[in-house]
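re the bet — no i am not wrong, look at it urself. input seq straight from the record:
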Amino acid sequence: MVTVQFTAIRTINDFASITVNCFDSCLKRDGRTMKLFTKNKKEVNKHQKALNELIRVVGKERVLSSVEDRICYSYDGTKQKVLPDIVVRPGDTTDVSNTLKIANQYEVPIYARGAGSGLTGGAVPLKGGIVFDLKNMNRIIEICPEDFVATVEPGVVTKQLQDEVAKFDLFYPPDPSSAAFSTIGGNVAECAGGITGLKYGVTRDYILALEIVLPDGSVINTGGKTGYDLTRLFTGSEGTLGIFTKITVKLIPKPEKIRTLAAHFRNKDDAIDAADRIIDNNILPRTLEFLDQMTINALRGHTGTDMGEDVKALLLIDLDGTEESINYEMPVVENACKECNGFRIKVAETAQEREAIWAARRSISPALYNIAPHKINEDICVPRSKIKEILQRVDRIKEDQPIYIANFGHIGDGNIHVNIMYNDDPGQEELAEIIVNKVMKEVVALGGSISGEHGIGNKKSQFMELEIPPHEYDIMKRFKSYFDPKGIMNPGKMFIR
């Protein structure tokens, strides 16, 4: 956990000078210069008035404006870097409401931030303004075992919630790879998925009610059984419509047992066939994960685990349920893998062995940097019957290009992470972006989606119109305009026009 030191607020002249002129050459991370959103005098004055109001209403201790503090809120998992003008760390719904009233009055952009782990730029303050750091709103307000529900604040870390409800033999299924540090608020904003999506669905399937502060500072509560389903509308809205301050989630009984299996294959088509065969046998695994050869090679270099040069693809499978159901299902899964030429099929015998398998899976993202220093992670989603075809099309796009592509993900529900890895050679970044564009067109052509679980942000906004027909796209924009007529909520995200 990073400790932020509070520093004195600077004058208008200092404030403007820092924002517009400072750090022309010194703010470099990963070889890329941080962007400073340049404002005209009118905008600077407007932001200074907002700053003064925030200090008065919210409290100086909750408002950060030093460069050192603001740098910490300038980027997310995409490694884009844009310096915000102000950071507000609200303690409760009232703080959020008061901040939004001020931001709305002065038309200052607002960017909600949880852990900053998003992979599409959702928390990056593209137009400066105010970043909302919601990590201090991290209370588990209530767990009601008898009702199978829990109510939490947005800054609660996902795994913390999972661990707490497990004490009541309950289970919160959404399980993104970032669960150990991502927040529930961010998960809801992005409608996060995860490795359990095949059997249990994604975040939207577990959100019962939301307390939301709208751009004008008013507070609404969704979750009623009559009228329009506003809960579903706001889930996945990526901070473009309002700020979540309370989240009520559905829980289910904790499965009695979990068993894990790893199966090795000499080609990826056999692994895909095995996944299909498992489901064709009416077995729905808790997790059904796929790793291709490039991903396996990266893990080999990262963890030192030698799986053998003959391993070209890997399936990681969890089964959960009663002891009786798992004892029935596990032999069926093993046989399905063997029938599709799987070999070295290993069932984890202990909790330690199971954890070692999933620790390797969770380390894929950092491991990929052993291949190349830069990565574009696209979480495409296609019908399960089209997985082979999309991977073949990706191979054809990449063919003869001096770029590496690693594919892994939740094969059971058609969600594959296509990771385009590139180095600092001239033209590599541009080539990677061209490949992304081609991949997205192929995904949509196969009836898939440009995003399985990472959201849209600004990194995928250019592809929205590939998937969404013009009339539907316009309807979404009208919803945005209704809730946020001044356009202050996460501007620059989802929509490109």
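see?? Residues 1-32 have pLDDT under 50 and may be disordered. told u. also The two ends are 38 Å apart (CA to CA). so pay up
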